[in-house]
Design a protein that fits this description.
alpha+beta, 4-stranded mixed sheet, about 40% helix, DUF3109 family protein, Rv0495c
Amino acid sequence: MFQLGKTIVSEEIIENDFVCNLNACKGGCCVDGEAGAPVEDSETEIMVDIFAKVKPFLRPEGIKVIEEQGAFVKGEDGEWETPLVNGSECAYVIFDQHKIAKCGIEEAYNQGKIKWKKPVSCHLYPIRVKEYTELTAVNYHKWHICDPACALGEELKVPIYKFVKEALIRKFGEAWYSELEEVAADHLK
């Protein structure tokens, strides 16, 4: 671990490679699991505000869950998260013609209907961020369904921190990311 400003960062995001391979995993991170995607306090109002514009992109079962439970819910850990369909699929998930899970929020963004891409936790994946009183932990979340992404990242030689560069800048800023690049260059010497 190393410290950048008020963050504690795992070297694993520098040392491990990762590039999503949706053809192999089919977007399993959006449909497998026991909890929704983490939603930051600052994102909850956005989730409510964008729902009407995102709704046309969603599946009927996702819409039903969101209308019944809300745009976000309190998870078992006490944190905000996206609601789930059938206890596993994110309510915002949609499927393309190849049955690959995609984000309905991101689809609305891609089509210019909203200006917010998706929860930052989804954008950052496989990095998970945990806020503490004084510091923020930045860690690599290993999950077997992402094995194809690890293999593709290794083949293409793309470390995790480069794969999620846009999301890290979105979360922590350009200056933070520049410092991370410097640490990575020194670490890999």
